[in-house]
């Protein structure tokens, strides 16, 4: 039978092993943080550049859809994001853009995540663009961003076509070409025509010309 002192030594050994392990983990974390510090500074500079590069394009997009979108900036540690929530009665529609570093802080990642729940149309749920800090190209970032915006617009418009309640809500912002019978946002009209106290909107000059030929029939 072992004595109590032996038991205490075993207990102390376990405690000492635990402390040694925690100390080693702390030292490793401290070393990693020291090495990450300069890389995080580089990341912050590149991320700030990307945000400034895309800010005017994002603002223009939001302005175009201001009647149906709510923009919410999201800031987390080393992550900058913009969440856009779009009006719809048949689905939950969101678009999220994020900028953040990879785990080792050697690359910067841009992610675009779309959600249309329930799924009513086909769409690309997620797209990622990643590159080393010193390999970033403005043109590639802008092209990626623009493609994500256009892809979302297509999916959202396809959703709106199925959303009777939303179309009713937006009816004052949509017009119909009297010739082509196409409904479209008022700002997309290529031309207008005033007649008998009413404004007519046209998707193209050809439909306006056709309208002018036979006004009585229209």
Number of strand segments: 9
Specify Rg, calculated over alpha carbons. 29 Å
Number of helices: 4
Strand content: 25-35%
Topology as H/E string?
A: HEEEEEHHEEEEH
Shape: elongated
Largest sheet: 5 strands, antiparallel
Helix content estimate? 40-55%
How does the helix and strand content classify structurally?
A: alpha+beta
Determine the mean pLDDT. Answer: 88
**Uncertain regions: pLDDT < 50 for 5+ in a row?**
none
* Domain module tally: 2
In angstroms, what separates the terminal alpha carbons?
Answer: 108 Å
Strand order of the largest sheet: 1-2-3-4-5
Description:
This protein is α+β, with helices and mostly antiparallel strands and 218 residues long. It has two domains: 38-164; 172-217, no CATH class. Helix content is 45%, strand content 28%. The protein contains four helices and nine strands. The strands form three sheets. A five-stranded antiparallel beta sheet has the order 1-2-3-4-5. Strands 6-7 form a two-stranded antiparallel sheet. It has a two-stranded antiparallel sheet with strand order 8-9. A hairpin with a 5-residue loop joins strand 3 (92-101) and strand 4. Helix 1 crosses helix 2. The relative contact order is 0.09. The mean pLDDT is 88.
């Amino acid at each position: 039978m072992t004595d109590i002192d032996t038991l205490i030594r075993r207990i102390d050994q376990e405690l000492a092993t635990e402390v040694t392990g925690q100390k080693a983990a702390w030292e490793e974390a401290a070393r990693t943080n020291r090495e990450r510090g300069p890389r995080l500074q580089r990341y912050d500079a590149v991320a700030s550049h990307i945000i400034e590069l895309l800010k005017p394009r994002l603002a223009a997009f939001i302005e175009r859809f201001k009647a149906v979108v709510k923009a919410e900036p999201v800031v987390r540690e080393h992550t900058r994001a913009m969440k856009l929530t779009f009006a719809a009665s048949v689905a939950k529609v969101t678009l999220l853009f994020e900028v953040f570093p990879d785990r080792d802080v050697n690359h910067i990642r841009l992610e675009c995540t779309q959600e249309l729940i329930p799924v009513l149309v086909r769409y690309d749920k997620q797209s990622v663009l990643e590159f080393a800090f010193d390999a970033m190209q403005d043109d590639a970032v802008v092209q990626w961003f623009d493609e994500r915006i256009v892809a979302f617009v297509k999916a959202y418009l396809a959703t709106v076509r199925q959303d009777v309640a939303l179309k009713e809500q937006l009816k004052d912002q949509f017009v119909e070409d009297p010739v082509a019978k196409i409904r479209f946002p008022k700002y997309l009209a290529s031309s207008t025509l005033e007649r008998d106290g009413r404004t007519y909107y046209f998707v193209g000059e050809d439909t306006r010309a056709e309208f002018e030929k036979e006004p009585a029939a229209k």
